[in-house]
UniProtKB/TrEMBL annotation:
UniProt cross-references to CDD domains, sorted A to Z: AAT_like
Catalytic activity: L-aspartate + 2-oxoglutarate = oxaloacetate + L-glutamate
Gene Ontology CC terms: mitochondrion
Species for this entry: Morella rubra (Chinese bayberry)
Gene3D superfamilies: Aspartate Aminotransferase, domain 1, Type I PLP-dependent aspartate aminotransferase-like (Major domain)
GO molecular function annotation: L-aspartate:2-oxoglutarate aminotransferase activity; pyridoxal phosphate binding
Function: Important for the metabolism of amino acids and Krebs-cycle related organic acids. In plants, it is involved in nitrogen metabolism and in aspects of carbon and energy metabolism.
Annotated EC: 2.6.1.1
Annotated protein name in UniProt: Aspartate aminotransferase
Top-level taxon of origin: Eukaryota
Keywords: Aminotransferase, Pyridoxal phosphate, Transferase
Essential cofactor(s): pyridoxal 5'-phosphate
PANTHER family: ASPARTATE AMINOTRANSFERASE
Amino acid sequence: MQRRIVINIMWRFMGGSFTRLTRCFSTSPRAVGWWENASPAAKDPITGVTEAFLADTNPHKINLGVGAYRDDEGKPIVLQCVRNAEAKIAGCEFLEANATEMASSLVEESVKLAYGEHARVLKEGRLAGLQALSGTGACRLFAELQRRFYPELPIYLPRPTWSNHHNVWRDAQVPQRTFQYYHPVSKGLNFAALVDDVKNAPDGSVFLLHPCAHNPTGVDPTEEQWRDISYLFKVKNHFPFFDMAYQGFASGDLDMDAQAIRIFLEDGHLIGCAQSFAKNMGLYGHRVGCVSVLCADAKQAVVVKSQMQQIARAMYGSPPVHGLLLVSTILSDPQTKSLWVKEVKVMANRIKRMRTALRENLEKLGSPLNWEHITNQVGMFCFSGLTPDHVDRLAREFHVYMTRDGRISMAGVTTSNVSYLADAIHEVTKHDEEALNICYTSH
């Protein structure tokens, strides 16, 4: 009321001039400083690595930060199955007309990849699935669903996990907790500590799990360990949400890499799952993914899907259609899908060869450290055990770039640079007493 009176008085004083009135208010601190309290956001660690790499003019530079696949020349590739799909959809006159049908096909084929082509829950209609903006968008949709219906429940994230997981659940205003996962001495799974944290979490907690090719460590539980984890989740009534960004990159076998999800399915869990086709189809820029939630029955699945659709509607409306058409075509056409399965195996095998080559080169140099974890770990990433000081020296002296936690993207290692990389790693670690003390060695 007082504000209205002041404005009326000023209006009369200025002869009813709107221009004069707005000039008066435009000089107020609020009008000129709406964003003055904003400060620069922290840089994403991977973005920072890429920027430093691009600014370096040295011809021997290596980028080990990127999380997408690269060929043996260090270049992105377009899979032949994608080229074939491009040719098939080139004649689509009205993309809009195909969007709904193809989105349904994408979800149907995606959940077959995750839960099994002949899984009973598919026939029972118990899966609520929705196309998402790659794996990040799928995680965000689930995080919003969690906040909407269980705002008091935290999400338990493995320590460590993909850094963006923290951002996704933070911005969804979901409380976060962590559970132990990686053992820095053995550079493997800290299974005993993981089990303790699962047992000690309140009954009915929500956990995020990587079913294969854990990011950033490359450390996955064994089949037996997954069965033990599933049993504990059943006892504690925990809800597992799987983020499957690298299906196929751990073993080269799509079904094998979904083994953890199948185990939980066999044990009767209700499950959530995020899937991405950014890496295993080389479609990073197309942002194609799927989020699914396994429900108690078909009626509940309809309700949950409607809630996810409402969340997506408010966040971005609907995803772009071109990538959707590509993935749907690849998954629904038996011949094209068969080609994709072969190409995934080729990519996975190249990464395995680079793991072997890097370890062998380090051992030939007479490194006093044990590098068995390079080949024991799986998937796109190797958690090298290098310290931040090692990483800084690699960048400064050898033009080798990676995140400061020592995570190596094995896709950035090639036949032509693996020897140079091994030499660089050896040089920064061979006289490091701290590294010798912290590194698990069998010598």
